[in-house]
Write a structure and sequence with these properties.
Number of domains: 2
Bound molecules: pyridoxal-5'-phosphate
Distance between the termini: 30 Å
Shape: globular
CATH architecture of the largest domain: 3-Layer(aba) Sandwich
Strand content: 5-15%
Structural class: alpha/beta
């Protein structure tokens, strides 16, 4: 069988990183600290430093828990409405239901970002928060969203699960809102070797509350001041993330380079619409999402050539059973029908990216 080009193969990390992770694991085994501890504290500080923010960054169990904790910290619950994009990973809407509030879905623009022009028409006296999602790694216009929400007293929770490493006007994604939420799910640009996430806020008292919410409501051991839960990060994952952070920029450079190859060679090919702004700093090149009316034919063709692609996402949230909701979601629906994510990650070889390009060109030379 011919060698496949995977969409993302996380076993392809290089020997240097593998050895660094093995050493970290061995050191942690010797220390015997498997919950909280120095690695977790260091990770919060390392992340703030790396992102160039004065915000407090609080590592936690995963991105979904980060979003749910953010809603609880802002005391959003029964009877409240939260505006959320129709196209996103399910967690963004799921957490709203989990705290007893109601998601109100808004269409995206043609690139998949929440359509800010529609927010006014969806706002009611019950609207307590809005959750912008930096989908595919491209940032929502946060200046604009802040100036819309702040005067109305509407809170912003930034779903930055996909946007680590993107900056708008020099300010990091995840640091623009009342609370920013990060995911370090293994496939993210900065991924753990398991589940992990973080919350970010500039508000010191909110930071303290978040610390308590993720740790059974305790400011100190055995003193339970509020109802919390266990949403602590796994200490071993914090240790691995401390190691992996040092490799992040090198990987970002590779992502951007491969994205530039796709842009250079695929522009003007067939009916393809490419993510033009992917090389800008407000995009972290998490996913390279193309749009075509021949999505299923192209996906199938590439698969036959051993090239694996993905769809982010095949269904809008308001069409899923637990979230059924009426409304017009024209751009989001169009994306579910026409978008295709090409392999884009730092573990690819340049020749593999060129092969993807070559096969896409062959596909279109046959269909035109
Ligand atoms: C947009 C978005 N929101 C939330 C999440 C949830 O993060 P996690 O998988 O770490 O719970 C993800 C990642 O899976 C995501 O892509």
């Amino acid at each position: 069988m011919k060698k496949q080009i995977p969409f993302l193969d996380l076993s392809r990390i290089d020997q240097e990183l593998k050895s660094a992770l093995e050493k970290k694991f061995s050191d942690m085994l010797s220390k015997g600290i498997f919950s909280r501890g120095e690695e977790v504290e260091t990770l919060g500080k390392n992340l703030s430093k790396f992102l160039g923010t004065k915000n407090t960054i609080i590592p936690c169990s995963n991105g979904t828990d980060a979003l749910e904790i953010a809603l609880r910290a802002l005391e959003i619950g029964t009877g409240d409405e939260v505006i959320v994009p129709a196209l996103t990973w399910v967690s963004t809407a799921e957490v709203i239901k989990l705290v007893g509030a109601s998601p109100v879905f808004v269409d995206t623009d043609s690139s998949g970002l929440m359509d800010l022009e529609q927010l006014d028409s969806l706002t009611t006296p019950k609207t307590k928060a809005v959750i912008p999602v930096h989908l595919y790694g491209k940032m929502v216009d946060m200046e604009k969203l802040n100036s819309w929400a702040k005067p109305k007293g509407i809170k912003i929770i930034e779903d930055n699960a996909q946007g680590f490493g993107a900056y708008q006007n020099g300010k990091s994604a995840g640091c623009w809102a009342d609370i920013g939420c990060f995911s370090f799910y293994p496939t993210k640009n900065l991924g753990a070797l398991g589940e992990a996430g973080a919350l970010s806020t500039s508000d010191k008292s909110l930071a303290k509350k978040i610390e308590m919410l993720i740790n059974h409501g305790q400011p100190i051991r055995d003193k339970h001041e509020i109802v919390g839960r266990n949403a602590r990060i796994d200490t071993i994952q914090a240790g691995f993330l401390n190691v992996k952070l040092a490799y992040f920029q090198k990987w970002q450079d590779k992502r951007k380079y491969f994205a530039s190859l796709y842009l250079q060679h695929l522009s003007g090919i067939g009916d393809l619409i490419l993510p033009e702004s992917i090389l800008n700093s407000d995009h972290n090149a998490h996913l390279f999402v193309i749009k075509t009316d021949y999505r299923s034919e192209l996906k199938h063709f590439l698969q036959e050539k051993g090239i694996l692609t993905a769809i982010h996402y095949p269904t809008i949230i308001p069409k899923m059973n637990p979230y059924l909701s009426k409304g017009l979601f024209v751009n989001s629906e169009k994306l579910t029908a026409s978008s295709l994510s090409l392999p884009l990650n730092p573990f690819l070889e340049e020749k593999e990216v060129l092969k993807v390009i070559q096969q896409i060109k062959i596909f279109y030379s046959r269909t035109s």
